[in-house]
Amino acid sequence: MQIKNVSGILMGIGLVMIILQFMQPVMAAAPNLPNNSCADCHRKLLFSSEAQRQFIDIRIKHLENGITCSIVCHEDKLNKSTASTYALWSISTHALFEVTCDKCHGGNMSATSKDDAHIGLSGFNISRANTPEMCGKCHESELMEFKNSQHFKNLESGEVPAPACITCHQAHSVRVLTSSEIEDFCSNCHNNITGINPLVPKKAEIALSSVKELDIEIAQARSNIISEQTKGKDVSSAQANLESARTILKNVPSVWHRFNLTYFDTEVQKGIVDAKNAQNIKTEATATVTPKSPGFVGLLFISGLIAAYLLRRSA
Fold first, then answer.
1. 3-state secondary structure the chain
2. Which of 1, 54, 136, 155 sits in a 20 to 30 Å window from 34, CA-based?
3. Quick one: pLDDT band at residue 242, thresholds 50, 70, 90?
């Protein structure tokens, strides 16, 4: 009896396995999905091989970082470079003042076809050594000061490494380094390893920081002048000192490009002195005439004149 039961169980198991054998292809069949979708690749993945497990890991990382299958990952190198360049330019001061690609690279902005747009193109990569002359077309005073610098002389000779415009400002983001950034940046060249004056970076940071003081003193002087003007005081002398300080502040970007820190600091300190002098408004004392009392002699004289007058009339 027990043998018959066992035989029946085994036959039942065998029958189930035969049914599952026929059902498996139907259950495993892939849904009819459109071509080029993510599912075309990922629906086939199983944890059955090392390569597939790695592919799953990549997929998970993509999902965690919000990356989808798109042209962002597969576009060609030139398009990637162009997109990156445009992104940098779009947040630059050049973009703010509508200084577009053609200003540096040439070409025809108004053309509608690729060939016509590229007529007169000077090349996608501007030579580093030529950037001073190119940038100087708009930044004339900066170029004039830069030509007085040792940096420019080294760049022109080509004998030793020297910075050009894009070294400090970058080609497309056109950044202006702050006083908190300048020390680390200058240290790329000025350090003990290169042997190029390692004291310069700290001096540069101190010199550039003084510009903030000049800006603050100018603001204070302007406030004082406005306040004294409302009181009717003569502020012409203070106004002249303020204008002198403002001129120095305006010329700071140009003077900096001479890269003579002693000269730069001297100019900024002059501006600070002018601004402080503008704050000390001197008021000229106005002379007022106070009537003096005639005194006893004066009263006696006046009385005599009145008496003489009355006597003459009575006669």
1. CHHHHHHHHHHHHHHHHHHHHHHHHHHHCCCCCCCCCHHHHHCCCCCCCHHHHHHHHHHHHHHHCCCCCCHHHHCCHHHHHHHHHHHHHHCCHHHHCCCCCHHHHCCCCCCCCHHHHCCCCCCCCCCHHHHHHHHCCCCHHHHHHHCCCHHHHHHHHCCCCCCCHHHHHCCCCCCCCCHHHHHHHHCCCCCCCCCCCCCHHHHHHHHHHHHHHHHHHHHHHHHHHHHHHHCCCCCHHHHHHHHHHHHHHHHHHHHHCCCCHHHHHHHHHHHHHHHHHHHCCCCCCCCCCCCCCCHHHHHHHHHHHHHHHHHHHHC
2. 54
3. very high
